[in-house]
Amino acid sequence: MQLNSSKISQLALFIVLFFALILSALYFSYRQKASIDAVLESDYDVSMARDSIGQNKNAKTGYYTLVLSWSPGYCQNLRAGNAGAIPKSAAYQCGETQKFGWVIHGLWPQSATARRVSDHPRFCQGDLPPLEVALLEKYLAHSPSLQLLQGEWEKHGACAFSQAKDYFDKQQELFQSLKLPDYDLKRSDLFAWLRRNNPQLSGKYLGAGRDELQICYDLAWQVINCPKIRF
């Protein structure tokens, strides 16, 4: 059976498009790997001595705050404060390869009697060694920075969890239980959207900062009203 010129042209076009798609996928994969490699080569350890708030190992955990960050806003502010440049530690999150919306800033054990940031549990185990990259890589999709993951573990996670994996798994579980908008909203509209699309948040008082959202949980991981004080 012979193919006519029209079918040959269509077949040739299909082959060209097929290989173009493969090359495009390979190039994107290469860019992704290069972006990840840029992060993995950086020094992601965190020093308690350089932290402006410091340690509080005696505060008792009364509830938890899941803190989420609107990545486009964070990256825009980062560029504005660095003459348009992106620090190497933020290359994965704010570079051209990845496109993040809401991401996990951290899960914070909090003191129910706190009146200022330093009253909350912090660095309860002191300075901790860097976690294995193989562990941290698993959570980059939702917390796109090795330094962020390491810092949140040392500052907050180690105050309530004995294992870093358990801490990261819990914050990821809470994050994935939420339905979040994939576009920017002003605060009042954001809260209304969240309560409308997440029954567990209905009627609950949520916290917010600049490009951040805070959802609070009791010790049994049920949503509660966030205290109306600064974190």
From TrEMBL:
InterPro entries, alphabetized: RNase_T2-like, RNase_T2-like_sf, RNase_T2_His_AS_1, RNase_T2_His_AS_2
SUPFAM superfamilies: Ribonuclease Rh-like
Protein's UniProt keywords contain Lipid biosynthesis: no
GO MF annotations, alphabetized: ribonuclease T2 activity; RNA binding
Keywords on record: Membrane, Transmembrane, Transmembrane helix
Transmembrane segments: 12-30
Biological processes, Gene Ontology terms: RNA catabolic process
The keyword Ribosomal protein belongs to this UniProt entry's keyword annotation: no
PROSITE patterns with a match to the protein in the record: RNASE_T2_1, RNASE_T2_2
Family in the record: Belongs to the RNase T2 family.
Protein name: Ribonuclease T
